[in-house]
């Protein structure tokens, strides 16, 4: 009887250890994939508008013409503030959910990009 309860306790302990190991591996894999994706975001601002490329294996390119931009927002959550990062949100003309985000920019670069794109929009409105 005592041997049975000890064996049952060891089996229960191995399940908990296996679950903890699986959870740890899942978190490590998610952090690794997130850091890889973070490194592969590029943007280009020219006279026509903003181009954004994301991804390494599966690349996604987005082009936002300057004349479609309605307004610009900077978002900074607690983790981004701690790392001096920001997310630029570009709201475009169109449907209610038309927005493009450029995540995890350096905070100074995000402000500079917002200001440059904002001036470009103002020039287009004046013309």
From TrEMBL:
Taxonomic superkingdom: Bacteria
UniProt entry tagged with the keyword Signal: no
Matches recorded under Pfam families: bPH_2
Membrane-spanning parts: 16-34
Keywords: Membrane, Transmembrane, Transmembrane helix
InterPro entries per the UniProt record, alphabetical: YdbS-like_PH (IPR005182)
Every YdbS-like PH domain range: 39-117
Protein's UniProt name: PH domain-containing protein
Source organism per UniProt: Agrilutibacter solisilvae
Lineage: Bacteria, Pseudomonadati, Pseudomonadota, Gammaproteobacteria, Lysobacterales
């Amino acid at each position: 009887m005592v041997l049975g309860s000890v064996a049952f306790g060891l089996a229960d302990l191995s399940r908990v250890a296996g679950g903890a190991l699986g959870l740890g591996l899942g978190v490590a894999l998610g952090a690794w994939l997130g850091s890889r994706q973070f490194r592969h975001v590029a943007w280009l601002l020219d006279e026509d508008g903003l181009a954004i490329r994301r991804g390494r294996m599966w690349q996604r390119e987005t082009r936002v013409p300057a004349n479609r931009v309605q307004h610009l927002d900077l978002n900074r959550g607690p983790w981004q503030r701690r790392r001096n990062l920001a997310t630029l949100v570009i709201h475009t003309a169109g449907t209610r959910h038309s927005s493009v985000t450029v995540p995890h920019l350096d905070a100074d670069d995000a402000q500079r990009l917002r200001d440059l794109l904002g001036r470009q929009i103002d020039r287009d409105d004046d013309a």
